Amino acid sequence: MRSTVLSHTRRWLGASALALLVGIGGVSTAYVLTGQAATAQVQPAAQIVVPPTAVPQAGFADLVEAVKPAVVSILVEAEDSSRTVQRGGGQFQFQFPDLPPDHPFHDFFNQFGNGQGGGGQQGAPEPRRYMAAGSGFVISGDGYIVTNNHVVADATKVTVVFDDGTEKEAQIVGTDERTDIAVVKIEGTDLPFVKFDEAPPRVGDWVVAIGNPFGLGGTVTAGVISASGRNIGGSNYGDFLQIDAAVNTGNSGGPAFNSKGEVVGVNTAIYSPNGGNVGIAFAIPAATVKSIAGQLIENGSVTRGYLGVSIQDVTRDIADGVGLANAKGAIVREPAADGPAAPAGVKSGDIITAVDGTPIDDALGLSRTIANKAPDSTVELTIWREGKEIKLSVKLGKLNEEVADNGQNAPTPPAPVAPTPSSVGITLVPNSDGSGGLLIQDIDASSQAASKGLAVGDSILEVDNKPVSSVQDFESALDAVKARGLNTALVKASRDGEARFIGLPLGN
Predict the structure, then answer these.
(1) Looking at the whole model, is its pTM more than 0.85?
(2) Is 180 a catalytic residue?
(3) pLDDT one-digit tens code per residue, 275-290
(4) Which of the following is catalytic: 3, 106, 150, 473?
(5) Could you confirm whether 197 is annotated as catalytic?
């Protein structure tokens, strides 16, 4: 099972069971009743009577029996080119220089290519070969199967095993590393398949996971959806379902069903401090899987919309600094020079609060929303700028999965200027590398600036969306913020070349 918060692990986790037997009282008494007394019932006064309406669920046997023929195990033979195996002398270094030429050990050494006494050649490094196992499920009668990208990555051969033991070799149709979705195909007609849930599941709904944990194909576990919209480290698009059905290594790519036998998610990751199941697993929502799988089947690859902005979350301080009532949306650090947003009028410091009328909660939400849009489509952005809401239309580009480094040579730095203390506990000096802004040379550890994460070496680029190149510019911008009745200033700072926004309180 893949994990970011997770780890690749092959360890077994043992299970233990504890049975607890409780006896009432210290004496066991038998009653023999005859005649009319036999019709009486003996009942302790404090006995709890369960109401007849509290009937336990009938279980999931019928559901499992119906969907299991469409759930498969995925067996993979693969090569990892990033790790190699040295054939020959790289593994065995026999050092017997005085060994006679006709000694029989020469034949033994030469089979490893060590070159001792027979001219053996050391073999070249070869990719490490390995075998892996995962899960998947059939989504069409003609043999398309969904699994995880990390299950079939680097695969040289993929074998699909059905619940009845039938094995078929599969071909990889397409993979998408960003969402960890892959589609493979086997030959066949009228194969049993399952469909995706059309409505988003609710937290607390039942979920049944079927997969191939530790090579135990057809394993069924059940639980509930514990949470939705989870963002786990290492994911580009987040929005995972969290489930508490037991998921382990080998469940990757397997389906999570609702009580109607519809796929609500694809199991892809676990949180595990010890390598075993601890009741926290993550599944890719059905809506995402359906969209990605459809593109992979149709095109063999996935295309995504591209807005061309670097963004960050809107904190409470940032919202206060721009007069925004709710700390929601994504603030634009910088629009890309060659991206679609800049020509459409998007500026640094703009806060995108909605796309096509759909509210944006945070930076991840904006990334996910734009990625789900088609390239060359036009979207309407709702933007908070200078204390009011505006709308801009942007024609999206196509996301380039590999971002090029467009760094430029820095200009000649100006002569150094003496550092000057500011009114908010930081000592500033014009940036000596010529990139503009002010460099923090010292900071009061008890100041609000320090508490908000500013540190020596950071650059202050803007205050209240206005560039600053001197302490006078800096102080004038702060005064303008106070004059508007705001107690927090929006500060654009840079660290190691990465810009970010900070809401800097102006009170003591």
Answers:
(1) no
(2) yes
(3) 778 889 999 999 999 9
(4) 150
(5) no
